[in-house]
Amino acid sequence: MERLQRPGLAKSSSGMDNLFSELLCSVTTIHIAHFGQKGPGSYAAHKALGDYYENVAEFIDSAVEAYQGVTGKLVKFPDKISITCCTSVEECCTYLKGLRAAINKEQQNCSYSEIVNILDEIKALIDSTCYKLTFLK
């Protein structure tokens, strides 16, 4: 999944600003998907998605604060956002893998190892979530 330019993201925002915004949107996207699970395997998916949104917020907070501290400037968040709707486990995995690709792209341009490391933790959480969604039913 290629990262989309979300409505309201200022063209002057940095790639990292956009990434942080997308990661914050992922909390709501996955939380909504968490509530919509039904049928066989739904409890495992419900739990896996819950683990993602409960844990990723702390990593995002750490990454944004560290980034603002090291760069000396505040992240620019959009005035308006759009939330992706994932209605199936497969859509959730595709969405999360798209976020993972966006993280990889920004890590290549980031010269702050501490930020790269926090983003690695988010990727590990994405990987774990996709594993649980795919193999634990």
What do these coordinates show?
It is a single chain. The chain has a single domain, classed as Ferritin, core subunit, four-helix bundle (Ferritin), CATH 1.20.1260.10. By secondary structure, the chain is an all-alpha fold. Helix 1 (15-35) runs antiparallel to helix 2, helix 2 (42-71) packs antiparallel against helix 4 and helix 3 packs antiparallel against helix 4 (113-135). The protein has helices at 15-35, 42-71, 89-108, 113-135. The two termini are 24 Å apart. The chain is built from 4 helices and no strands.
* Shape by Cα distribution: elongated
Largest sheet: none
Q: Total domains, how many?
A: 1
CATH superfamily, by name, is: Ferritin, core subunit, four-helix bundle
CATH class: Mainly Alpha
Rg from alpha-carbon coordinates: 15 Å
Q: What oligomerization state is this entry in?
A: single chain
Give the amount of beta strand, in percent. Answer: under 5%
Span of the ends, CA to CA = 24 Å
Order of SSEs:
HHHH
CATH topology: Ferritin
- The percent of residues in helical segments reads 55-70%
How many helices?
A: 4
Mean pLDDT: 91
Q: Which architecture does the CATH hierarchy give at level 2?
A: Up-down Bundle
Number-wise, the strands total 0
Structural class: mainly alpha
